[in-house]
Amino acid sequence: MRKKNILKKGLLLGMSMMMALGITTGCGNSSGSNNNGSSNNSGGSSKEESETVKLTNVSYDPTRELYEQYNKIFAEHYKETTGKTIEVTQSHGGSGSQARSVVEGNEADVVTLALAHDITMIEEAGLIEEGWLDEFEGNSSPYTSTITFLVRKGNEKDIHDWDDLIKPGVGIITPDPKSSGGACWNFLAAWYYADKKFSGDEKKVKDFMSKLYDNVLVMDSGARGATTTFVENGQGDVLIAWENEALLSVKEYPDEYEMVTPSISIKAEPSVAIVDENANKNGTQDVAKEYLEYLYSDDAQKLAGENYYRPSNEEILKTFSDTFDLSVDLCSIDDFGGWDQAYKDFFEDDAIFDEIYNQ
């Protein structure tokens, strides 16, 4: 029997929330959806319609389910505190592609992307004011994640750490760093492991990475597409995945998949920001700030944990110790000199990734 599509389930959940709350959800496209979820009475504009606030959140692939649920609790909070209804339009895709869509005219009020560099791209286009990284706590990352492996039940290829990914005959699924923020985190986690293994010998590290990418069967444009390729289409022996994506797949198909946490991984910090140019034009600057600030509330932090993201609130994170391996050795983007330096070194055209992948 054909496996149930995770994305399809997420869309159905979103539709039920839309009907209950009037939250507009445009999933799975780079420009978002602008369906109007407000109601009409007798063909005229009601007072409630006139007080409806509209907000567009451009996000990355795996956050569909999280924001469908978050938009519900934020709408309730916003109604209680302001008396107004809010409609949130969501857009999802590979993080880099999503950032480029905003630069090219997607009128996002906020972006909730996979890595800081993608938001810096929007800043450099003049749409986000300087200093956005410090506007919210934790490098403007209200939740974090890490990189793990998803394997088929029984783990026939005996995959336990990064070394096992370079063995002959191991088919890897991972997205493309040119379009996916998650793929960039995947690459850096593997690089850091190899760097430690070979004591900084760059030639050996590059050889390790070359062998790893030689085993890649499919590079989708985004993390959710890679999950679909592995889970839905049955390709590959291992998916290099966001921890939240791997845990979600195990929850959906407990008899078919299992997650493996490598000995070394990376603290992935998905970042959020107000797109100031658009928010100022749309008159949504205040509500955009409240929307992102509320991600740090206890209710939202618990919701993040329930959706397999690591809450930035350390006390709440501890309550999910049965969900997350909190003992794993995690490097951070600071170990690569920050995102601007890391992107320049690894992911720009003709940088290290191209050198390894094209040889």
Could you characterize the architecture of this molecule?
The chain has helices at about 5-20, 45-50, 65-80, 95-105, 115-125, 135-140, 180-195, 200-215, 225-230, 245-250, 275-280, 285-295, 300-305, 315-320, 340-345, 350-359; strands at about 55-60, 85-90, 110-115, 145, 145-150, 170-175, 215-220, 240, 255-260, 265, 270-275, 310, 330. A five-stranded mixed sheet has the order 7-6-8-5-9. Helix 1 runs parallel beside helix 3 and helix 3 packs antiparallel against helix 13 (about 300-305). It folds into two domains: about 5-145 and about 270-320, 3-Layer(aba) Sandwich (D-Maltodextrin-Binding Protein, domain 2), CATH 3.40.190.10; about 145-265 and about 330-359, D-Maltodextrin-Binding Protein, domain 2 (3-Layer(aba) Sandwich). It is an alpha/beta fold and about 350 residues long. The chain is globular and about 60 Å long.
How much strand content do the residues show? 5-15%
Shape: globular
Computed structural class: alpha/beta
Would you count the extended β strands for me?
Answer: 13
Give the number of helices: 16
CATH structural fold name of the largest domain: D-Maltodextrin-Binding Protein, domain 2
Sequence stretches where pLDDT stays below 50 over 5 or more residues: 1-49
Task: Please give the radius of gyration in angstroms.
Answer: 20 Å
Q: Which whole number gives the mean pLDDT?
A: 88
Strand order of the largest sheet: 7-6-8-5-9
Largest sheet: 5 strands, mixed
CATH class of the largest domain: Alpha Beta
Secondary-structure element series? HHEHEHEHHEEEHHEHEHEEEHHHEHEHH
What's the N-to-C terminus distance? 40 Å
User: Portion of residues in helices?
Assistant: 40-55%
